[in-house]
Amino acid sequence: MTFGFLLLLFVFQSLDAKSTKPWKKNASQPKKIRQTIVLSIDGFPAYYVSDPKYHSYFPHLSEIFQKYGVSEIATVNPSVTYPAHTSMVTGKDPAEHGIFNNTLSDPFEKNDGGWMWYTEDIVSPTLWDLARENRKTTANVFWPVTVGANIDWNLPQYWRKKIPEDDKLLRVLSTKNLHKEAELAVGAPLNDVSKDEVKLKTATWLFQNKKPDLMFVYTTDLDTNHHGFGPGSEKALSRLLELDKAIFDFLQSVGAFSPKGPGLVIVSDHGFHSADVVCAPNVVLKQKGYIRDEEGSFHLTFKSSGGTAILLPGANAKFTDSEIQSLVSEILLACPGAEWVSATSVLLGEEIKQTSEDEENCCLQKKIHPSALGLLRTSQSMFFSGTRKGEVFTKSQTKIHGHGYWNANPEMKTIGFVYDPTGKKHRFQSVKDVFGIAKDMLGLKEKKNKGPRVSTKP
């Protein structure tokens, strides 16, 4: 057993390691948790925790993780922000909860780049629904897919032009008067260009003044810097160091780890990977007439998530297996390193070892998208583009930093941390486990329902 393996095992699994730093274990553990906070750090790869060279860039979090334990967890497919965050609050896969991607399948940009901001598109019960049923209060700072959510104090994520005019719209979409009240208290408005320090200070004010039983907090700056400069880059790591301090201040402000402090979940939605070649499968579909730009119609289209691209049919379009396989074979020939997963998980292209995650995702229509005909994925440094212009396969002039890769790819692994003041241990293997952990910590009871709503989205 190597030293490196022992170190990783210590970081990810040690729950009772001793520490000489300020964090102290409770002398007497409470029998009941009064409040719980779920904090998401978008785009935190698990390899930052497993590789000690990164620990100096998040010293406070590293200390907490070493003391109380942290898990390497799986995300969902596609490994992008909105599906993953909705899986956290529903415990379901994207095909079940209805948020299939960050954006709708919209080949001709009729929605003008709009994201899936709206809670009404979620077809499974959420944690805030469950909290309300159990007479618990809820609060939110910028959690994805919360516009219109039945949250007591709601500050949802939304943007259009990312200019000050957006603040007026956010005031309307938030709980009445709350957005302006928070701005006056913190000294800056909460919007999509706000630094995470503003989000966390807003969360501090909200927690201290409204005293919610369950609060969701979402930070974005690490993900933004990873996309812009790459994981492990100087700029991304410098921002992580600043974010670590801001999170430490937030945790202190809400009394985390104190005898009467809140239960705490710290989680991320996906890891990060970099690509230097681009595969554009929609170029093939356009060449063969499946996408008709002049008519604004399509019979087939690939919806890209970066590291994967899902094949979706147009309205009332039907295809034989041989027709699909012929198209896919041409794409695989043009894009070396691409792999095809059919709706029944028959692999074409380069053979790769099947993993437990592959078995977990055995049926694309049950896990990822109910209309999926199949999915392109890769374990290489490849990016799937949704463009219909140019060549099918090209080398990128600059590195493309992103995610959306198959959740079994090690680069997509992310982190999950739980602090339960009662001392109870919780299973944390997937972003979907957030639902059960928060539910258990607050003692929420589920009522029988009539089943999920039916999604009609593309």
**Fraction in helix:** 25-40%
Q: Can you tell me the CATH topology of the largest domain?
A: Alkaline Phosphatase, subunit A
CATH hierarchy, class of the largest domain: Alpha Beta
In the CATH hierarchy, what is the superfamily of the largest domain? Alkaline Phosphatase, subunit A
* Count of helix runs: 16
Summarize the main sheet: 7 strands, mixed
Strand percentage, roughly? 15-25%
Can you give the mean pLDDT?
91
Q: Please state the overall shape, judged from the principal axes of the Cα atoms.
A: globular
Based on the structure, what is the oligomeric state of the protein chains? single chain
Number of strands: 17
The class by helix and strand makeup works out as alpha/beta
List low-pLDDT spans.
1-11, 13-25, 346-352
C-alpha-based Rg, rounded: 22 Å
Instruction: List the strand order in the largest sheet.
Output: 2-17-6-1-5-3-4
Organism: Leptospira meyeri
Pfam families: Phosphodiest (PF01663)
GO molecular function: hydrolase activity
Protein name: Putative AlkP superfamily pyrophosphatase or phosphodiesterase
